[in-house]
Write a structure and sequence with these properties.
The complex is a heterodimer of chains A (about 180) and B (about 450). Chain A has about 180 residues and is mostly helical. Chain A has ten helices and no strands. The longest helix of chain A has 22 residues. Chain B has about 450 residues and is of the alpha+beta class. Chain B is about 35% helix and about 15% strand. Chain B has a five-stranded antiparallel sheet, with helices on one face. A four-stranded mixed sheet of chain B has the order 2-6-7-9, covered by helices on one side. In chain B, β6 and β7 form a beta hairpin. In chain B, about 45% of the residues are buried.
Chain lengths: ~180, ~450
């Protein structure tokens, strides 16, 4: 695979995955670029055994996981009073573990035109990160349990149970839409 | 409904069930309306997620990617300074004026040192954070404008910038605004000039973007200033932390000069408990309680009880970046509350110790550090230090132990401070002397917590 093939063929895939993981265009672009840069760097050692797409999924998801971890560590930045000033005193409403969800939750207006898509992306963002990754890889990218297990470094059984639970959660959140649709 | 069947539904839809189970689900669903509905709902939700629209790459994605790649590959340069180009697209020139003041002042005040290798976990502090190297490098020859831009340059910079930027973007419509491309070009230059490799994404900018979600709106001057101020705040914080890692001194509040504790100040204190000072056989070193009470390892820093203990961390956390000009500007914009305490909000909170031990171990070789949070770990720790003598009594349900060891042959190892910084427990220690025939150690009990412990060795 040449650099051009990598970029031409897969940049959009990586971007879409990033978009569903992060839930907003700005973070998605940043993440997608980070993942693609990593992939470009690692390209010489890419042996072509794995499918290029799964290889890229793994790079993207790992980059995203690192970010999530970093975000969690950086929770204390949020205590900077400036932020609360700019946010109109939003600071303090949430704390601890809720930070990430809160940070992720608002969607870019205009990203999802449709009500349903908006609700679905919103529901995805409410999932715990690893479950979100499982769902996105399964439903959107269409990976098999085995491929998801490899990409995320989880046992297949875990993928299966996560997915089942995540779907349950999504179903609860999307009840109104699911019935209507 | 059968709970077991319910668990299988998800895998059934993915055709990931073994034949026997698949048949069971089907048989059950045929007979049970509730399960059929469940199956249908799940299928529908699954389809909804799958039906999320695919997006095209944003306009300019590849160009930005290439630029970022080039930046990462050139030695002294920038990586995505602003993580959110869309929001920053119309960062007004007015905002840049504020930014420049901060940076030019900031440059003198900032004090970056190469990362100290003995710091166990720098990632914990901020993996995407500031990583600067050897600060005042001459601008790279490639930089189109090596002269540090002055405020007067801004208008022209905004209007045209360098040739490269002009190619990448149309000229700005007016002198008081910049296109995204121009802004990026300008910021790249700035970063090159200052030798900055990477600046952490300022949260405020991120959140603003998500909050407002109005990508094309220009930032107001006040917003821009606030964002820039937060960035410099972040830098100062990172700096202060770094300085703390590499310096054995702790600044006093109120600007007095920091000082090192002298030997006498740190010397033996009253008896605390347990372990008898025995020089046991086989050359095992003697053990003596050296301190007790709440305030051992006093670094003469009044406990930073208030969040406003500005500058409590280190000399590098100077207030320089918060120039009076900016303060004035902030005041006129009603932003005075923005930084009431100035910098140093990540003030170090000294941690009291409940007791400490020192001695020479004849069995332990080589320097190192350790923590013990359970009775077993506590026993194991002492076992390594002195297998002949039982571990002193300590309540590991209330305390945890931190231990530092000098190198073989050193005469002493001291804990200079134990403090809490940014959610971490930082143990600053120093080892000294030569000519002993053991390995010096020091162990302190601190209140139990799950905070990560990092050990820093003072020079």
């Amino acid at each position: 695979m040449s650099e051009e093939e990598l970029l031409k063929g897969h940049a959009a895939t990586v971007y879409n995955l990033a978009l569903r993981l992060t839930g907003n265009a700005a973070d998605a672009e940043d993440l997608a670029q980070e993942a693609l840069l990593k992939a470009l760097k690692a390209l010489p050692s890419f042996r072509g055994e794995a499918q290029a797409s799964t290889w890229l999924y793994r790079i993207t998801v790992n980059a995203w996981k690192n970010r999530v971890r970093a975000e969690k560590r950086r929770a204390f930045w949020k205590s900077v009073p400036l932020a609360s000033l700019l946010m109109g005193g939003r600071d303090g409403e949430e704390d601890g573990a809720g930070d990430l969800k809160a940070a992720d939750a608002p969607l870019d207006a205009g990203l999802e035109q449709e009500e349903t898509s908006k609700a679905v992306q919103g529901a995805l963002l409410e999932l715990e990160e690893e479950s979100r990754a499982v769902v996105v890889l399964r439903e959107i990218e269409g990976l098999s349990y085995e491929q998801i297990a490899q990409t995320l470094g989880l046992p297949e059984g875990t993928v299966k149970s996560r997915l089942s639970r995540a779907r349950e959660a999504l179903k609860a959140k999307l009840k109104a839409f699911a019935k209507a649709g | 409904m059968d709970a077991h069947i319910k668990e299988l539904i998800s895998a059934y839809l993915d055709k990931a069930l073994p034949e026997a189970e698949r048949a069971r689900v089907e048989a059950h669903a045929a007979a049970c309306a509730e399960c059929r509905a469940e199956l249908e709902d799940t299928r529908r939700v699954s389809a909804m997620v799958a039906g999320l629209p695919k997006r095209e790459l944003p306009v300019g994605f590849m160009e930005r990617l290439q630029r970022r790649r080039a930046a990462e590959e050139s030695p002294a340069s920038a990586v995505s300074w602003f993580p959110a180009p869309a929001r920053m697209a119309a960062f007004a020139a007015a905002g840049l004026v504020a930014g420049l003041i901060v940076y030019q002042k900031g440059r003198a005040g900032l004090h970056y040192e190469p990362a100290a290798s003995h710091f166990a976990d720098t990632r914990g502090f901020d993996s995407r954070g500031v990583s600067l190297k050897g600060l005042p490098e001459p601008p790279p020859p490639a930089a189109p404008e090596p002269r540090p831009p002055s405020m007067d340059d801004l208008a022209s910079s905004a209007a045209g910038s360098s040739a490269a930027d002009a190619k990448a973007a149309p000229a700005a419509p007016a002198a008081d605004s910049m296109t995204n491309e121009q802004l990026h070009g300008f910021l790249d230059q700035e970063q090159k000039r200052m030798g900055i490799r990477e600046i952490a994404a300022p949260r405020a900018a991120n959140e603003l973007q998500r909050e407002r979600a109005d990508g094309a709106q220009p930032m107001s001057r006040a917003e821009a200033m606030a964002v820039v101020r937060q960035m410099t705040d972040d830098i100062a914080r990172a700096n202060a932390f770094k300085a703390m890692k590499t310096s054995p001194v702790v600044a006093l509040d109120g600007g007095s000069a920091p000082r090192l504790l002298s030997k006498s100040e740190e010397g033996p204190m009253e008896e605390y408990a347990a372990k008898p000072a025995v020089a046991s056989g086989a050359g095992a070193g003697s053990v003596a309680m050296v301190s007790s009470g709440k305030d051992s390892f006093d670094v003469s820093m009044p406990v930073a009880a208030q969040a406003g203990a500005a500058g409590a961390i280190a000399p590098a956390a100077k207030r320089a970046p918060q120039s009076s000009a900016l303060r004035k500007a902030a005041a006129t914009r009603g932003l005075t509350q923005a930084a009431p305490g100035g910098f140093g909000r990540a003030a170090a909170q000294r941690i009291p110790t409940a007791g400490s031990w020192q001695g020479q171990s004849s069995t332990l070789r080589g320097p190192g550090t350790a923590t013990a949070g359970t009775d077993a770990e506590w026993a194991a720790l002492w076992e390594r230090l002195d297998p002949e003598t039982p571990a002193p009594a300590a309540d590991l349900s209330r305390y945890r132990a931190v231990a530092v060891f000098g190198a073989r042959g050193q005469t002493s190892v001291k804990v200079l401070s134990i403090s809490s910084v940014s959610g971490k427990i930082v143990v600053l220690y120093a080892a000294a002397g030569t000519g002993s025939d053991g390995t010096p150690y020091r162990i302190a009990l601190i209140p139990r917590s799950s905070a990560p412990v990092v050990f820093q060795k003072a020079r």
